[in-house]
Specification:
pyrimidine biosynthesis; decarboxylase; eight-stranded parallel beta barrel; EC 4.1.1.23; 10 helices; single chain; OMPdeCOase_dom
Length: 261
């Protein structure tokens, strides 16, 4: 099972999406399984945060639609810092509509997500055509995460819904790199999906609006997931660089202990 395999080993397993292989190698090289969620409201804050935490992360997650002045300057700045600091960019748009509409949301409008995001995510409640539609509109350097479980209290993504996400992912291993979930969903021999887990903060249990937090040790060590996604825990700190390093070190240690290296 993948929980006892290193990121490096998993990078070259068969049926691993090209973006997943690249990300697994990058994680191993930089020794970081931390994704910072940059939920800030201006281009200036976004680019500053990317510079500050860039060395400690494998991925930066954006919500482009909450950036007041999102535009070409945001895109160029983000691409430049990502190339310089070696991290991938994940746009957390959570597509959830009919195929024809998600293709437009992905490629057009003011955000032009297809031009700059390496990773995107989608809900499968509209049915599996959402995967086909996004894959048709994508290019080789884009990969999809399916939202299989959420971190928020009382969410409905459990049981057979979550299982169905895994079934659909297995049908599209070239395009679907993994899941947003609270535990690893690699249950069958041959599964090598990457699980990314939000709802991580040290020293907090929730935010009063449904968010529920776990520690890096719980998520990586016990639940066997691959990447922690941390928003307010990092960008809400005075010293964001130091805070990102703290999360990186704890999540990396939890991984090393799990794989026994
Ligand atoms: O660390 P936080 O609570 O400040 O931010 C968590 C980030 C937010 C959410 O939109 C996102 O993670 N998120 C997601 C994602 C990544 O898809 C799913 C989920 O179940 N919970 C969650 O918080 O940007």
């Amino acid at each position: 099972p993948t929980v006892t395999q290193s990121y490096q080993e998993r990078a070259s397993l068969p049926k691993t999406s090209p973006v997943a292989s690249y990300l697994l190698r990058l994680i191993a090289a930089k020794q970081t399984n931390l994704c910072v969620s940059a939920d800030v409201s201006t281009t200036k804050e976004l680019l500053q945060l990317a510079e500050e935490v860039g060395d400690s992360i494998c991925m930066l997650k954006t919500h482009a639609d909450i950036i007041n002045d999102f535009g070409p300057r945001t895109i160029e700045g983000l691409k430049e810092i990502a190339a310089k600091k070696h991290f991938l960019v994940f746009e957390d748009r959570k597509f959830g509509d009919i195929g024809s509409t998600v293709q437009k949301q992905f490629t057009a409008g003011p955000l032009q997500i297809v031009r700059w995001a390496n990773i995107i995510n989608a809900h499968i409640f509209p049915g599996p055509a959402i995967i086909t539609a996004l894959s048709q509109a994508a290019h080789d350097a884009v990969s999809l995460l399916i939202l299989a479980e959420m971190s928020s209290a009382g969410n409905l993504m459990t049981g057979s819904y979550t299982e169905q996400c895994v079934v659909e992912a297995r049908k599209n291993p070239e395009f679907v790199m993994g899941f947003i979930a609270q535990r690893t969903l690699n249950e069958k021999p041959g599964d090598n999906f990457i699980t990314m887990t939000p709802g991580v903060q040290i020293g907090a249990t929730g935010d009063g609006l449904g968010q529920q937090y776990n520690t890096p040790e719980k998520v990586i060590g016990e639940a066997g997931t691959d990447i922690i996604i941390v928003g307010r825990g990092v960008y809400g700190a005075q010293d964001k660089r130091a805070k990102a390093e703290e999360y990186r070190v704890r999540a990396w240690k939890a991984y090393e202990e799990r794989v026994g290296s």
